[in-house]
Amino acid sequence: MAMSAPDLKPIYSGKVRDLYEVDADSMLMVASDRISVFDVVLSDIVPDKGRVLTALSTWWFEQTSSIIANHVISSDPTDLPDVAGDFAGRAMLVTITKPVRMECVVRGYLFGAAWTEYQASGTIGGFEAPTGMREADRLETPLFTPSTKAEEGHDMPLTKSQAVELVGSELYERARQSSMDLYEFGASHAASRGLILADTKFEFGLRGDDLLVIDEMMTPDSSRYWPADKWEPGSAPPSFDKQYVRDYMLATGWDKEPPAPPMPADVIVNTRAKYIEAYEMITSLAFSDWFDGAQHLR
Fold it and tell me: Is residue 263 part of a domain?
């Protein structure tokens, strides 16, 4: 494609990703090295984070394409617009869809916001739950707990009836079933690699009547991964996701309102290492090879 960086029209800049218009049917999705916790974008970046998100999403999209179609056209730099070299490895050419305004969260374990809710009300995502559960307990059956997809501020949990009212019963069920199928596949593969996929979220978009999974997939930003040999119910397992950064920020006494305190150099280095380790454990690929390998989908 004969197109230079200045020719790309910015469409949207989110907490982590920036979107650029390519043509009427496609856009460039670029994963930055920004990191956000508690819906606040931190002032520090994590080097190579955007490449990890793109590499791992590309891998998962390819692995799950028989479950549901996705929006990726290509992650191969030779297929992308002739943009600044810094985009290489961080950009995907994707099909434009109409986003479904519902975050699709699947929880296999009781942790994070679900644990907080359970302690307060005995429910998980508004669903009744067994009494006497401990933090990080495995749920007997994974739960689909949708939330709003907020343009700004915090996503808010939705009951089933609220979600159905928001997107319609037919679309809700399609998104729910696809989310559950994807989680089952992802959790099974993670287990084979010595990892627990505790929870994750998916986003979907419509291309005509076709439902596509979009944005990212089962990355350390959208998911919670634990080493299986370190999991012990009743305690918080170490993680390969940004929980490490959340824990550091909370330890500073930060009130979760912007601006956030800066991250020390060792926290940045350790976060980068955790993201790369997650990629390599899940895919059995060397992250250094991502820069050389051509990645084609569809």
Answer: no
